[in-house]
Specification:
Layout lengths: L5 H10 L7 H13 L2 H17 L1 E2 L6 E2 L5 H4 L7 E5 L2 H8 L7 E4 L18 H9 L4 E4 L5 H14 L5 E4 L15 H9 L2 E2 H4 L3
Length: 205
């Protein structure tokens, strides 16, 4: 792809690094911004800079937040005795959209994947174990994607916390095997949360 200016080429190359954006889509977006009022590009730049510099990770659950403690953890109406374990922030958003879960979350920041070089120590697993050990937790719900990596992560965490006197469950398989949580429709995901099953039972299927 030939560019009339190096500045345009650099902008396209940067935008093309975003997931799902190819060079042609990146060029279309960059040219759109170029043709819009300069203020609009400045607003976008300021919003992205503020997001990158000011967003925090909740000290309790690792969800993204504007403050040190996210709104969910700080909400006195949430059941602090039930923890829903998810892969990332998008899963928190997906489950929250169902309005079926009233507990709190724990964001792992990924899944165990030896192929990608991601081990347990790369994820927020130790803080989850500490939370179960040192707090009055009654149930841990696994809500990871129904993939090999998700199941491996579930099992690893299960072995770390099974010695504690808590209920360990997993969302019902209304989510098809191989599906990502964030892409599930709200009704199916909501029913999976409500109809969760003991994790031990999922090992037998």
């Amino acid at each position: 792809m030939n560019f009339p200016t190096k500045i345009l080429e650099n902008a396209v190359n940067e935008v093309a690094q975003l997931p799902g954006i190819g060079k042609r889509s990146a060029l279309r977006l960059v040219l759109h911004l170029l043709n819009r009022p300069k203020e609009q590009t400045q607003y976008l730049t300021e919003a992205l800079n503020k997001m990158r510099n000011d967003i925090k990770f909740c000290k309790n659950c690792h969800n993204i937040s504007d403050t040190n403690i996210c709104e969910i953890c700080a909400n006195p109406k949430r059941n602090k005795h039930i923890i829903c374990v998810v892969e990332d922030v998008r899963d928190v958003m997906a489950i929250e959209n169902t309005a079926q879960f009233k507990g709190i979350y724990h964001v792992l920041g990924g899944k165990i994947s030896p192929i990608e070089g991601i081990g347990p120590h790369h994820l927020n697993i130790e803080s989850l174990v500490d939370k179960v050990k040192n707090n009055d937790i009654s149930e841990v719900i696994f809500a990871l994607s129904s993939t090999m990596e998700g199941d491996t992560t579930n099992f690893y965490i299960f072995k770390q916390i099974e010695k504690f006197a808590i209920k360990i469950s997993t969302i019902a398989r209304g989510i098809a095997v191989g599906d990502e949580i964030e892409y599930a429709d709200e009704i199916t995901l909501g029913r999976s949360i409500l109809n969760r099953i003991p994790f031990e039972n999922s090992l037998k299927t």
